[in-house]
Amino acid sequence: MSSIAKRSDGSWRARYRDTDGKEHARHFSRRVDAQWWIDSVTASVVRGDYVDPGAGKATLRHYAQGWQASHVGRAATASLLDNALRVHILPTLGDRPMSNLRRYDVQALVKALSTHLSPGTVRNVYEFLNRIMQAAVDDRVIAHSPCQRIVLPARSEAEVTSPTAEQVRALADAVPARFRAVVVLLGGSGLRIGEALGLEVGDVDFLRRTVRVERQRLQSGDIGPTKTPKSTRTVPLGQIVIDELAAHLAAHGVTNSLFTWEDGRPLTYSQWKRVWRAALHSTGLDLDTHSLRHFTASALIAGGASVKQVQTVLGHSSATITLKVYAHLWPGDEDRIRAVMDAALSALADQVRTRASS
């Protein structure tokens, strides 16, 4: 419902009630301008993209905190979201009204973050902001998202490198005896560190030489589901890993958790980081725990494993991810190309040899 009325001062008062019954009014010096405003509002209601002019006055902090509270997802994702908001987004843009945020503000934030964060981290922070702003559009808080045509830092295309067997052995020797089995298991199974820390003794089948991955220990210390449905898997173990795990249990006792701290409680991510940093310091190596996962992949590929086999062991959600990370490690591509082309051109072989001998 809308109306336009002339006021005593000669101006024109245009007003309407929104879908919630709230009245909105503006004053114009000309009736034609008042009519245009009413018509544009009416058109937005008909199109279904009407936005309450007052809704965008809420700050990004206010809306983002509400959005975060209703966010549904894995605990690991919730932790990343909290860090992105608390550390990177809200300190810079949090007190700005939603309707005042512009593409320039988002681009400036991305550029500032790019000076001290990796491209992948910057992209993750931006993606959370993009999701929040899109939700605000869906909720009719703002008409358009400022996260449009943002130039993001290029991802690093550097090929992953795998530690050598000698380096893995050096790390296994450098950690305290209580944690040697962690290094050997990671290097011999391709498990993520969270998956290894979430293992229970019953997950290891010493007879069949397998380990069942059904959960992971999060950075918070809590137990959560695996990263993706494909991450829930049974991984075959070599005899060396099995023997190391058996020796570990014999030396340090059998508890529910496979790996425990010195006080008997489950080994946490933060405790493992301290152990790992000390091992790196003593060996002089510059590797992260994920490098042991690369070691597993490179060993499997060098041994002739297929893409599907490597995907299954590592728990990748798709073979595409496996190829994206490890395609350069599969040997023999150039030789295979040569053999295929020789077979295709075999009819010309005699002609080539005849010309060469004449």
General description of the model:
There is one protein chain. This protein has 358 residues and is mostly helical. It folds into three domains: 2-50; 57-138, Tyrosine recombinase, N-terminal domain (DNA polymerase, domain 1); 165-329, hpI Integrase, Chain A (Orthogonal Bundle), CATH 1.10.443.10. Helix content is 51%, strand content 9%. The chain contains 15 helices and eight strands. The strands form three sheets. A three-stranded antiparallel sheet has the order 1-2-3, covered by helices on one side. A three-stranded antiparallel sheet has the order 4-5-8. A two-stranded antiparallel sheet has the order 6-7. Helix 2 runs antiparallel to helix 3 (75-93), helix 7 (180-189) runs antiparallel to helix 9 (239-252) and helix 11 (290-302) runs antiparallel to helix 12 (307-314). The termini are far apart. The model has no long low-confidence stretch (mean pLDDT 87).
